[in-house]
Amino acid sequence: MKTEKTKITSFSDHLDSQYGTPGSLGRERYEQEFEAFKLGVMLQELRKEKGLTQEQLAEKCGTTKNYISRIENNASDIRLSTLMRIIQDGLGGFLNFKVEFK
Fold first, then answer.
1. What backbone torsions phi and psi does residue 36 show, to the nearest 5 degrees?
2. Which of 45, 58, 68, 85 has the fewest CB atoms below 10 angstroms from its CB?
3. What is the average per-residue pLDDT within 72-79?
């Protein structure tokens, strides 16, 4: 019986082939969208850790359940002032930033 070997591709190589090499327009767009996705997931996890529904979080920070849902599902851009309200007023946390240069 003949068996086929499966070629394993590294995640970095996969990104290069799908979105371009680091520094290319396609790769930069992917990286930005991935950061937005991570933010949505992080907010969703924090909300659940606090035992809040989307509606409860929205009420605490002065926005709507629909907006919270869109942020968590990466379907909406978020303003810095709104992000700060969600973190501080809604979740009781503090927002820190880190800037990196390539």
1. -65, -40
2. 45
3. 85
